[in-house]
Design brief:
about 260 residues; alpha/beta; TIM Barrel; 8-stranded parallel sheet; 9 helices; 8 strands
């Protein structure tokens, strides 16, 4: 029997602020995740607060195996990286990656210069600690590749929520990176992405929710959650003409390799 892994999600307190009881809402989310055949989830840090919360969250009792990353999102690239780096260097239990970090030229909430500087520093941190690197990339692949080529790409690196073109996918794959696919692949206007997904070698493919964002069709517009990674995975399998069980089995292995988890 194989299971799904949600390679990238956000389950921190801030994402349950509207719930009458945030703890109960999280517990219910994790129960639904387990019942959907999802047995692992990687909770992603994007700043000091969310990284601290991710590390605390993965220590809780849960029906689903939880792991954490710490990082500074490109939206917050002007912020001080030192507290996030200190968290990583303390080597807490179940810390498996650095990020999400990278470049976002769609919103540009931080200057491009600040984004590249912060990204380069976090690449260095992943090298230093031998942790996976989790990358956010939007409308910025030329500069992204330039920074990665200059700093050296960690052996275990993934582009999360890949939404690029087939050519951009080839550029990532040629550099040894993995690609993680979210619910965006199910959207009506994602034909270019679907063409790219067909070309990703199965051994370099991951599936994720990026919850609570980007819920897949038919749930688009609603809050996302890790249980829905099974919907993303089933859609990807059908798109690629592969058995769902095969995609489930291989993405489990791939994410275990990426984050150095037991099979």
């Amino acid at each position: 029997m194989s299971y799904w892994t949600d390679a990238h999600c956000h389950l921190q307190d801030r994402f349950f602020e509207g719930a009458p009881d945030a703890e109960a809402a999280l517990a219910a989310t994790l129960t639904r995740t387990y019942e959907a055949g999802v047995r692992r989830a990687v909770v992603i840090g994007t700043d000091r607060e969310s990284s601290t919360q991710a590390l605390a969250l993965v220590q809780r009792d849960s029906p689903v195996e939880l792991y954490a990353t710490v990082g500074l999102h490109p939206h917050d690239a002007a912020s001080d990286l030192a507290p996030v780096a200190a968290l990583a260097r303390s080597k807490p239990p179940r810390l498996v990656g650095i990020g999400e970090c990278g470049l976002d030229y769609y919103y540009e909430h931080s200057t491009r210069g600040d984004q590249m500087k912060s990204f380069a520093a976090q690449i260095g941190l992943a090298h230093e600690l031998d942790l996976a690197l989790v990358i956010h990339a939007r409308d910025a692949f030329d500069d992204l590749f330039a920074v990665l080529d200059a700093e050296g790409i960690p052996a275990r690196t993934v582009i999360h929520c890949f939404t690029g073109t087939p050519a951009e996918a080839e550029g990532c794959l040629a550099r040894g990176m993995d690609l993680s696919i979210s619910g965006v692949v199910t959207f009506k206007n994602a034909e270019t992405l679907r063409e790219a997904v067909k070309r990703i070698p199965l051994e370099r493919l991951h599936v994720e929710t990026d919850s609570p964002f980007l819920a897949p069709v038919p749930h688009r517009g609603r809050p996302n959650e890790p249980a829905m990674v099974s919907i993303v995975g089933a859609f990807v399998a059908e798109l690629r003409g592969e058995e769902e069980s095969l995609v489930r089995q291989e993405t489990w292995k791939n994410t275990a390799r990426l984050f150095n988890l037991p099979l």
